[in-house]
Amino acid sequence: MFPFVLLTDDVPLGQIPIDAVVDTALGAASAAIEFEADGDVFAHTFSDGSTHVGTWIVPTALASLCTIRADIVSGSVEASSSATGTDLAMTADRQWAVVDPGGTGGVGAVLAITIRFQGITIASRNVTLSATAL
């Protein structure tokens, strides 16, 4: 007997294309991950700006039927980040960030991110956010 995965048009393929966003910059530093409602994923840092790192769902037309959840494993995120510890509809962009304004020695967080399609987990991964101002 051979193990296999059956893929159909009914269930999309999900992924979290990056496991860390790191920024080291003069003055202030920031690291953020953003999952957009259109299926794109961006990494944001003060030093490099916005970088498209992939897509979180294929086909992207099914994105609005998904939810995303970020649970804090360690550290903390900025108050302006999307909510943590709850499933959020992917009808809007979702972003989590850490910011080091300087003088802190660096800040960070590890998030367990889970993407679900109609309640079925299609992707799950820990993502590390780290920012250090020099």
Please describe the topology of this protein.
Blueprint: E1 13-14, E2 20-25, E3 29-35, E4 40-45, E5 49-55, E6 57-58, E7 66-75, E8 88-89, E9 94-100, E10 107-117, E11 120-133
Parallel strand pairs: 2-11
Antiparallel strand pairs: 1-6, 3-4, 3-9, 4-5, 7-8, 7-10, 10-11
- Radius of gyration using CA atoms only: 16 Å
Calculate the mean pLDDT score and round it: 92
- Counting DSSP H or I runs of 4 or more residues, the number of helices is 0
Question: Which strands sit side by side, in order, in the main sheet?
Answer: 2-11-10-7-8
CATH fold group: Immunoglobulin-like
Counted up, domains total: 1
Helix content: under 10%
Backbone shape: elongated
Main sheet: strands, sense, barrel:
5 strands, mixed
**Order of SSEs:** EEEEEEEEEEE
Record field, number of beta strands: 11
CATH class equals Mainly Beta
Class from helix and strand fractions: mainly beta
- Which stretches of 5+ consecutive residues score pLDDT under 50? 1-8
The oligomeric state is single chain
Question: How much β-strand is present in the residues?
Answer: over 45%
- What is the distance, rounded to the nearest whole angstrom, between the alpha carbons of the first and last residues? 57 Å
- The CATH architecture can be named as Sandwich
